[in-house]
Amino acid sequence: MKTAVCLMGPTASGKTDVAISLCKRFPFDIISVDSALVYRGMDIGTAKPDAETLQRAPHRLINIRDPEEGYSAGDFVRDARREIGNIQAAGRVPLLVGGTMMYFRALIGGIAELPSADAEIRASIDADAEKAGWPAIHARLQEIDPAAAERIKPNDRQRIQRALEVYLASGTPLSEWHSRARTAQDHNLSFLKIALQPATRRVLHERIEERLNLMLNNSFLDEVKVLHERPGLTAEHPSMRSVGYRQLWAHLDGELSMEEAGKRALYATRQLAKRQITWLRNESDLTSFDPLEGRTIDAISTSLREFFNA
Length: 310
Fold this sequence. Notes:
By secondary structure, the chain is of the alpha/beta class. The protein contains 14 helices and 6 strands.
């Protein structure tokens, strides 16, 4: 059985630097596991590796979508499995790096093979929501699929729409599709899971604030202005719901002052880190390292050598 290595961690924990260092020591090729890095033109606010870094250590599944396009966990699983196969065929080892935990879960544990998106059904749902509001559409979902409605907030437009779309396209509730998990795990592939988990939450929060300030001083707002001017791109697109982008977009719409947008972006990023840490704490078979300690790379390298030489 072949192995892929997963390097997980909350935002601002230093995953990219660790991954690049590991690539110098092991025959690794990097696959990005990040729902924002897939988008072209979203570079500063996503802390996307720069061109020089990508030349030294190429990352697969970066810059593969325009911001107007969607990208689901199912899309990621399909693309990641393809790239894993290509890397293994070349005699190398996949290193999956990122913080989009839903993608890791879908790849490792399997994901339901849901019906494809249906533009006509989505348009109909949107038209109904325009008249009645998304809470009313959520109430409709509650009648059809109580289990899914319980997990989805009444104002979560994207997830309500998808859950209803799945039911209307197939006649089967989304929760039942998930329970089937028809796209099963790849039993010919095992995953070695490594996590970067700072022992001190306070230090991680400081790193998050420092990084956000650096982004804001490095033309992050200008980047969002360019996106804001794109015909057809709105605040409702999944790409623009990414932390930081959502708040700066609201500022450009006149809804928030720049100061308030910065505060909300910082809060949202810290909340994201909290959710990521909670997910990691509940994950099994995980080996954790504190990225803020000295010689973290050496400790991870020793663990990897022990695993591959066992």
